[in-house]
Amino acid sequence: MTTPARILVTGATGTVGSVILRALDAAGHQVHGVSRRGGAGPRQHTWRLGQEEPPPELRVPWDAVVHCAADTRWNLPYEQAEQANVEPLRGVLSLIGPETHLIHLSTSYATGLEGDISSHSPDAYRNSYEWSKATAERLVRATRDSADIVRFPIVMGARADGALDRFSGFFWLPASLCSGAVPALVGEKDGLMDIVSTEDIAAHVTRLIAAGPPAGHRLSILGRGKEAQRMEDVFETIRAALNSWRSANGVPLLERLPHVTPEQWNRFHLPFAEQHLDRAQLLRVTAFRAYQGYLSVTEPFDVTTQVADSKQALFLSMRLWAETHEGAARRIPQPWKERSAPAAAGAGGP
Ligand SMILES: NC(=O)c1ccc[n+]([C@@H]2O[C@H](COP(=O)([O-])OP(=O)(O)OC[C@H]3O[C@@H](n4cnc5c(N)ncnc54)[C@H](OP(=O)(O)O)[C@@H]3O)[C@@H](O)[C@H]2O)c1
To answer: Is position 196 within any domain?
Structure first.
């Protein structure tokens, strides 16, 4: 594609879209962004994709659209997940013609439990997020003769300093570790957690734009693949990052969490919790269950573009989260208590 190309980035104020927008801008393109609430600057527009028609200023020919807008929550009801992650794509498809280079951002987790995106059944996925992202990928394939689909796993910030425009997605975890809402490390012992930096994604998208639209559907999968960090190491890196901030700020250090397999958790701890915890505690436990998918992947993702080691990006991003979320980072984990409380009865529960 010739420079400057006229490019629209959806979700341009988010964790990933903001970095892509700046990278394409730095590469000399003429880049516009859209989001629900709009961003700063004349090239940032407001458009609630999937809920309203595009504003007139966006109904122009685009050389490329990088579609990042999504809701990364794993526990939305299925209808809402479709509304959040499929309808916005329909909005993009209604805006562009066949000549526009579509780059659709997906997730490595879109392949769900069966290792591909073909199943329409929610049972084939760990949660509604995976299901809706797989549905969106199928929609791209069904409606476009040419498109790039880019999958990647958990996203951390810049490699040099962990910088992120938004601490969304995975940053439920440090907050939950500090508050005690995650009572145990629930995951497979050999669980892998693949992590990329926002910079890896932005550099890849910039290369795809330079290469131009593919003949057909081109799938890229970014990550570490077989060299992904083990879940326990990831938790230790997060704990080390949070504790480095806590120690510098006089806050008691976080202890190592006990390890529990998903089977033990779902068969024993969760039924126990359902009987004995109060409503607020149960809501936290249920929300936590929706995230177990992240922690139970034992097969490495098949990557097409291997990224550099991401341990340092994880450490720095978590440390920066603590610096910028001081109230949450200062919390002291509270032990789980029963509703009406013979003290010893909580011992085996979360
Ligand atoms: N973060 C991760 O760990 C991760 C991992 C794998 C894949 N991904 C994928 O990467 C992409 C970007 O995710 P992200 O982490 O950058 O998300 P994010 O930080 O939550 O940002 C979402 C962005 O999308 C916008 N948006 C959401 N729904 C919209 C709608 N209906 N209309 C217009 N704008 C809308 C938001 O605008 P407002 O702020 O105005 O609401 C925001 O700019 C998504 O496809 C996601 O599935 C993310």
So the answer is: no
